[in-house]
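Practice problem: histidine kinase
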Amino acid sequence: MSTAFDNLQTFLLNIFLVYFCFSIYFKFIERKANTLTNELIIALVSGISIVLCMIFPITLPTGYSLDFLQIPFIIGALYGGRRVTVFLTFILVTYRFFLNTPDTDTTLIIYCLLLISLWWIIPMFNKTVTMRKKVYLALLASFFELFSRITKFVLLMPENITMDYFIIYITSLIIQPIGILFFVVFNENSRRNAILSKEIRKFEKLKTVSELAASISHEVRNPLTVTRGFIQLLRDPDLTEKEKKLYINFSMEALNKAEATITDYLAFAKPSLDHVERLDLKKELDYIANIVNPFAEINNVMIECQNGMDIYVSGEKQQLHQCLINLIKNGIESMPDGGKLHIHLQKINEKAVITVTDTGIGMTDEQMERLGTPYYTTKVKGTGLGTMVMYSSMKAMQGEIKVESEVGKGTRFSLLFPVTEH
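Answer key — structure tokens:
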């Protein structure tokens, strides 16, 4: 019973060692190296696995030993190529000589026969794109190895063919193909998942680009259409000077709106700080509160500002203003029936924290997760540009945004900035 338990431990150890070596290669290394480097690494991985399998064999009660070096040998040969196969054969035979096993010469014959069969299978395995065919070819290579082993005993050592040998052979016949099948399926699934993830990332980028293009065309085309209409009206020779000035003012306002939209997109696409300075958050919040107060009064919203501390951060004044105005404006618009907006400035763990809390409609968890993504907004007539630019500006200023919200009760935005003394 103890021997069987020890052999089970040894078997699991063999499987774990081979699985660990190959999983590290296929998950982290294969797609980041060129062909020659891949061959060298898989030769090293397979060689180490072969040696470890030979160091920890399974000893049967009959005195025979059984190892599973054929699994890393065949897997390494199929994925590494012909040169790797020759190298692995050399490692296997050399280590057999080092161990001074009595059947080294016959082992050399077995693996020379297996090398010939793999020389024919490897090109077909590399050209095959379907997993089913790869599995068939891998199992074929496994049966070639078993056939070579039978041939050795039948032709060269017929006197050693006993019941114990058949036990070893049947055990190999069952375990070896299953092990190879497992690793081929695992490796191909890893490759397929990596390709699928890459395609998904590419699709998401294309989707973002298409959404941004649609948004830009919509937000810029409308002001341009307005400008074009007024310019056409200016061709009328009977227009008075007052009408001309009115049409020109309308056209300039539309063009300014288009310019502001393009500026927002550029700020999102490439957030950067061109004019970094030391900013007094208390002073800046007072300035922002004075700007947004008229808008708040129109919407029946009362703003409470608690900013008694002098806290300084490094950043660009224009981006900070744009970020805070967008945030406060969104908070006011989330309270269609009026309410209270609280702005609080404090210092926590060397971080300047600006908290903006409203008593609006709130957001769901799904809405909070999508905040800051291109062309996403919770407002009926919104474009998502304000929140998108806010997240980009905070990233440029090395800041952080935290959101807490509950549907029907309101939302709290916390902006965290690194505090600066100089």
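Discussion: The chain has twelve helices and nine strands. Students who identified this feature from the tokens alone can consider the problem solved.
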